[in-house]
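Final report, section 2: Outcomes. Of the targets proposed, RNA 3'-terminal phosphate cyclase is the one most frequently requested by collaborating groups, and we therefore present its record in full.
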Amino acid sequence: MIILEQPNDNIFSFILVYGIISKKTIKIEKFKKNNFITSFLNLIEKITVNTKYEIKENFVFYPGDIYGGKDIHDCLVYNISMYIIPLLILAPFTKKEMQITFTGITNNRQTSIDMIRLAYLKVLKDFGVENIEIKILKRGFEPEGKGEVFFRCGNVEFLNNIEKSREEKLIKIRGMVVGSKINSSIPHSLIELIKDGVTNFTENVKVYTDLRTSTSSGPSPGYQLILYAEGKKTFYFSEELGDERLCSSLVTKAIGDLIKSIKNSESYDVKVLPLVFTFLALTSHNVSEIRIRKIGEDCKIILNYLKIFFSYRYSFKREEKNKIINSFGNGYRNIYRTIK
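The predicted structure is given below as tokens.
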């Protein structure tokens, strides 16, 4: 049994996933339950078999077997991404292909479902999980949400090792303006401002729109700006939710955040490193290599939990402002996958 202190909700969901994969019972003392925890536990029960838990003064989690399959899950007032990000870790190791339709918020000030589709799925594909998709059936801005997202992920036997130790140049920048029930002048202004603001980085710039009507969105109007920069094997991103600010201020903030991500990141945007390190811990015993520049506080916590649950080992060597990470996975294999 692993005894832990209660972390924030995002880290809590990672811990449950680690417990399921490692088959280790978890105990959290002086536990405080909230609606997200109850909802996420309900989701875990849907996609696993024989998972049990107790919530009294302490929380005790008895992991079951990973199953997958088809289901529907209501994310209440929470961002759908809070559920999908930890599910990205479990989904490749199911017995049956995972197909879940989520309802809830697709866009607020947390990671948008658009960024999950553009960036996080790319991480899975790097590790050999190719049969995966996200479809935004209905867009749901806060506060009322009522968006709808279809998530599908096929299973694999094991994760591939990766090698991303070389420095890369920026090749292209893509922008996206997503919205629901907004004046058409807003996306037009944002598109022109984005093009003017990023062309000094690269001439390969394109901006797309995804504007939904009442039939393909929830009741709340809203819009969001997404920026995505790519090298040959690297990517960085930023996003800004529309509010009372002028379009020019919104674009300036998004570009500033993108520049910050590029400066603080190398092989992967620093914001996806918790997912990257989790997969690195589960690859074969062969060495994987990535370049990093900074590690966020959440990622430091995740690295500690990876050591606790999987005895994860890595080393690094400094190269000017960067670190080259040599990672040694635990050789995890999908014991539930049916051999065809």
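The helical segments are 9-22, 35-47, 81-90, 113-126, 185-198, 247-264, 273-282, 297-310.
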